[in-house]
């Protein structure tokens, strides 16, 4: 075992963090898509 394996900064599950990142990025692009559709509808 090396030094970094012994001294872990966080013990949280990586799947939870990656799931949150996926949801946040999906919502970001969904909001951009909705705004673009609303602008397309208005013009």
From TrEMBL:
Top-level taxonomic group: Bacteria
Annotated transmembrane regions: 20-39
Keywords: Membrane, Transmembrane, Transmembrane helix
Pfam short name (any one): YqzM
Protein name: YqzM family protein
